[in-house]
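Hey, resending since the last one bounced:
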Amino acid sequence: MSCKRPELEIFPAVDHLLKYESSGYDYYKTYIPSENGLYKLLVKVFEHKPIQILPQELSCNDASNLYTSYLDTHILGDIYNLYNSHRFWKAKYNGKEVSREDAINHACEMIEAGLSAGRRYILLENRNSPALNRLIALIREEYPDIYFIDKNLREIGNGKNYYVDTIDKLNYYNALAGFDSLSHIHSHLENRDKLKAMLSDNLLINTYNISKLGLSAKGDCINLSFKYDKAVKLNIPKSHFLESWADGESAFGEYAVQQAVVNPLNPSSFSDMELLFTLFKILGLSKLQEYDDYYSFLATPAFTERLKAG
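The C-alpha cells again:
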C-alpha cells in the first residue's frame, strides 16, 4: 500500500524534516491531544509509509539535557490499526454500501429526524482540543438540546477536562440520569446502568467503540468507527489519527497540532471533528458557512497566531 504526504494549506507545529540519508527513513513530529494531556510523537516513515511510533526526545533548558516523552502501549501499538486488514472500509446505509456523499446526505436526514424524535446525545473521545471545543460551542448555540459526552459519560466541550474525581463522576451520572445525588456505590452503579440504557436509545452519533463501555448503539444512530456495526442504520469509516488534522493543548498551556503524516488510505473516511463540521455545515449552521471546508475551519487566525507564538 503506497501513501503520500498530504498537500494541505495548513501550518503544522513541527520542526524541519529530519532525514537520515543512510537509513532512508524520514521522521515527523506530531501530537495526540487527550483528556489527560498531550502525547508527543515521532513517527518513523519509510517510502511515505508510517512504520513506527516513537516518543519524542524533549529538551529541558538546553540541548544537552534531553528526556523522552511518555507514551503508553496503546499509542505505540496504534500504528497497526492504520493497516488493519479488518478495518471497516466503505460507508453502509441499511447494510448496503453507499458513496461518501450519499452517506453524508443520509446522516443529515437522520440527525434532523433524530432530533425530532428526542435523540440528543453525541458520544466523542474527550480531548483538550481548542478547535473541537469551539466547534461544539458553535453547534450548541443553534442546537442547545444536543449534548456531547465522552466515554465516562461526562459532558465535554466546556473547556479543559484533565482529571475528574469519583465524586464528580457520581454526581454527574446521577444528575444526567435524573436522580438526586446518592452517596453509596451500589446506587451509583444502578443509575449508571439506567443511564447506559437511556443513551443506547438516544444517541445521535457515536464515534467510540462503545462495546467496551457496555453500551450499544441502536437503530438510527450514526456510527463512525473502524468496525462495522450491523445494529445501526448508518456506518461511516473512521480516519486514523495519522491520516487526520486536529489541534490540542497540554495541561501547561502548550499548544500543538496533530498533523496528518499520510493522505487517508481510505478516501471515504472521516475524523470525528471533520464529520461534525461537514454535517452541521450542510444542516445550515450559520457560523460554519464562512468556512469552505473543515481544514479552513481548523486553520483560523487564532490557530495560526498560537502557532506563531510558539
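The first strand starts at residue 18 and ends at 20.

Sorry for the duplicate.
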